[in-house]
Amino acid sequence: MSEIKRVTTRSLQEMKRLGIRISALTAYDATMARLFDSARIDVILVGDSVANVVQGRSTTLPVTLDEIIYHTLAVTRGVERAMVVADMPFMTYQVRADEAFRNAGRIMKETDASAVKLEGGIEQAEGVRRMTAAGIPVMGHLGLQPQSIHQYGGYRPRGTNPEEAAKIITDAVALEEAGAFGIVLEKVPADLARQITERLTIPTIGIGAGPHCDGQILVYSDMLGLTLDFNPRFVRRYETFAERTTEAVKRYVQDIRDGAFPNESESY
Questions:
Q1: According to the model, what pLDDT value does residue 202 have?
Q2: In the predicted model, what is the mean pLDDT of residues 85-102?
Q3: CB of 116 within 8 A of CB of 85?
Q4: Contacts of 207 (CB under 8 A, 6+ apart)
Q5: For the range 2-11, what are the long-range contacts, defined as Cβ-Cβ under 8 Å and sequence gap of 24 or more?
Q6: pLDDT given for residue 231 in this prediction
Q7: Exposed, middle or buried by CB within 10 Å (0-12, 13-18, 19+), for 66?
Q8: pTM for this one?
Q9: Which pLDDT value is given to residue 1?
Q10: Residue 97, Cα to own-chain centre: how many angstroms?
Q11: CA angle, corner 46, sides to 73 and 132, nearest 5?
């Protein structure tokens, strides 16, 4: 596969065809987006997880459309290569297909994002069909759906019984038929994710869904070890930035108190 200058829905489709795994992370600001983009990440998701990571909320439900637009615009300013996908917040697409279409159009028009993402399966197919027909790329999200956490009553894995697994497969097929270009599979059994990945022609991106998906995504603060109170089994920490940042700030505070910062070379 030739070098990708800008990741698009077509590039992701080609990566699936060639068996090249897709890498994805969340980001919510230009600084982190620029770093991830320079590291050649394929997809950056401006997730409604901004509620947890940035706003200190316990769920993703309070995030507004205006907030997603704000953070997505910041992220796109820091990106040259990666595909930027924006989450559609709770209640911006569930009520009516025409309302979902208008809200998705606003995200695309005001942020320079490349696509939107929404949760749900066959019940969202009409909205997905409406968006894709108008040229708005849509990524689906099945399995554990954080916007439905109160209905689930917890963050346990989904698709662990035959009936629920069959529903997730049906939903995945419905999303593909409606025109979705990819699907996030969250906290489903690895074998179920494998079945879906093999059945679909569009890429699957896993988070807590095992190794058989076409790609993987993590929340960046989890992957970099910035969060200390969230330790699910599917997160691999590649850094310990919480500890390292705390230590750096302690040294900064001490240098100020000791009069060691700023020194002569750091003064005008």
A1: 98
A2: 97
A3: yes
A4: 184, 185, 186, 187, 216, 217, 218, 234
A5: 4/42, 4/81, 5/81, 6/80, 6/81, 6/83, 7/42, 7/43, 7/81, 7/82, 7/83, 8/83, 8/114, 9/83, 9/114, 9/115, 9/137, 9/181, 9/182, 11/42, 11/83
A6: 86
A7: exposed
A8: 0.96
A9: 66
A10: 22
A11: 85
C-alpha to C-alpha distance for 40 and 37, rounded to whole angstroms:
5
What pLDDT shows up at residue 229? 85
What does each C-alpha distance from 181 to 12, 64, 69 come to in angstroms?
A: 9, 24, 21
Structure tokens at 15: 């990566």
What amino acid occupies position 190?
Answer: A
Average pLDDT over residues 223-232: 91
CB 161 within 8 A of CB 148: no
Q: How far is CA 112 from the centre of its chain?
A: 16
Distance of alpha carbon 133 from alpha carbon 183, whole angstroms: 18
Q: Are 87 and 138 in contact (CB under 8 A)?
A: no
Please identify every residue annotated as catalytic: 186
CA distance linking residue 13 with residue 22, whole number of Å: 10
Q: Considering the domain 9-237 in this protein, what is its CATH number?
A: 3.20.20.60
Torsions phi, psi for 86 (to 5 deg):
-110, 130
Domain boundaries, the chain: 9-237, 240-268
* H-state helical runs in the chain: 9-18, 30-38, 50-53, 65-76, 97-111, 125-133, 149-152, 162-178, 190-199, 220-223, 241-258
Contact 195, 210 (CB under 8 A): no
For residue 2, the model assigns a pLDDT of: 67
